[in-house]
Specification:
Blueprint (H helix, E strand, L loop, with lengths): L10 E5 L4 H11 L3 E7 L12 E2 L2 E2 H7 L2 E6 L4 H12 L3 E4 L5 H4 L4 H4 L7 E6 L14 H7 L21 H24 L4 E5 H7 L2 H10 L16 E5 L4 E5 L3 H11 L2 H5 L6 H6 L1 H12 L4 H11 L3 E3 L3 H6 L1 H5 L3 E3 L9 E3 L23 H7 L4 H10 L2 E2 L4
Helix pairs in contact: 1-7, 6-8, 7-8
Length: 402
């Protein structure tokens, strides 16, 4: 299936599992790159077995691996290692997210391929990066959220247990950072003719999300803590309970604060010296929240949304995942799409989050079955049919249904 898009013509070998590297490859595939997901035999990516399973396929695997072709190799065999090396030699980009040293045992470490593949952009996504005292540790989103400071600023506040962000933000953000690094390295390659090594991690992805809190600490020595849905620099900027749910209010600057007071018909709040200026509102945030909660709890979320929109005030309802997927803006932006499965069933996934005027991202194919495209990608790498059959007979590769 011919691809189009911003990265059409770029071939990516993605040797990955679970989330960070699959997220990276997913973004590149959506932009038109030919991404070949290489899975290790006998079982392939662990998330193939994550629930829920629909039409025999994991919804989680389908989410992270649409738009990719799939090859399955036995990396304990000489034939599998040779096949991986051949695929890398024909690629523009190689992505991996295994522990340090793992890909070297396959003959696919950066130092092992850089001389024979000088144009290759090689991206490693790991728990802590490939340098430093933690380089040999495995990476998990929960652990990275804790060590990056994220869990110390997430949750209800002092005295409450640490809470992680509900989504695996270090995994997904590391994937975004990897894709950004790869695209930047490909752009530089057009000037130099040479690829380079791109190295990022879950740890750094988590740290990146502490920009505001780190700015506070580095400038003042004050250690920020959890504040629920509130903001460390502005108020009111948080969720408030309504009569039937929750709503977020973003009155982060003086102009929006005055609009909010007018909307509430609460001139007393505007004249109260505790709330008159941004710094005063932050200093008296608890009292401010108490005062505003009386107003918002008196009516429904829908009514408040109508008033906020009429007044041009930033705010929104707190939606659950089901509500989000059905929201008209989600639908209008193509953020939920039915891509089907490799067996022809129905499967819905999230769409590409960036819109391009001339080269739109397109979901071209569902996630591959294990080994579904092994034969065709090996043929493209220069293997003869007889060689492929010999590799399959030896168990070095799996030839799935294509």
């Amino acid at each position: 299936m011919a691809a189009s898009g911003l990265l059409s013509g770029i071939r990516v070998i993605e040797m990955s599992h679970v989330m960070a590297a699959p997220a990276c490859g997913l973004l590149l595939a959506d932009m038109g790159a030919d991404v070949i997901k290489v899975e290790r035999l006998p079982h392939g990516d662990d998330i193939r077995r994550y629930q829920p399973i629909r039409q025999g396929e994991s919804a989680a695997f389908a989410m992270m691996n649409r738009n990719k072709r799939g090859a399955a190799l036995d990396m304990k065999s000489d034939g599998g290692k040779a096949a991986l090396r051949r695929l890398i030699e024909g690629a523009d980009v190689f992505i991996e997210n295994y522990r340090r040293g793992a890909v070297e045992t396959y003959g696919a470490g950066y130092g092992q391929v850089r001389e024979t593949c000088p144009r290759l952009v090689y991206c490693s996504l790991s728990g802590y990066g490939r340098t430093g005292p933690y380089a040999d540790r495995g990476g998990f989103d929960l652990v990275a959220q804790g060590m990056s400071g994220l869990m110390s600023i997430t949750g209800e506040g002092p005295g409450r247990p640490p809470v992680k962000v509900g989504a695996p933000v270090t995994d997904t953000t590391a994937g975004v950072l990897g894709a950004m690094g790869i695209v930047a390295a490909l752009l530089k390659r057009t000037e130099t003719g040479r690829g380079q090594y791109v190295d990022t991690s879950l740890f750094e992805a988590g740290i990146m999300h502490t920009y505001w809190q780190s700015a506070i600490y580095l400038a003042s020595g004050e250690v920020p803590g959890a504040m629920g849905s509130a903001h460390p620099l502005a108020a009111p900027y948080q969720a408030f309970r309504t009569r039937d749910g929750w709503i977020t209010i973003g009155a982060a600057n003086q102009n929006s604060w005055l609009k909010l007071v007018e909307l509430l018909d609460a001139p007393g709040l505007a004249s109260d010296p505790r709330f008159a200026e941004p710094a005063a509102r932050m200093e008296n945030r608890d009292a401010l929240v108490d005062a505003l909660s009386v107003y918002f709890s008196a009516d429904t979320t829908e009514t408040w949304m109508e008033r906020l929109e009429a007044a041009g005030m930033p705010g929104g309802p707190v939606l659950d995942i089901a509500q989000m997927t059905k929201d008209p803006q989600t639908i209008a932006r193509g953020m939920v799409q039915d891509i089907g499965t490799s067996t022809g069933g129905a499967m819905r996934v999230l769409g590409h989050p960036v819109k391009y005027s001339d080269d739109p991202a397109v979901i071209r194919r569902p996630a591959p079955a294990l080994g579904q495209h092994t034969r065709e990608v090996l043929l493209e790498a220069g293997y003869a049919e007889a060689e492929i059959e010999e590799l399959a007979a030896s168990g070095a590769v799996l030839i799935g249904d294509s």
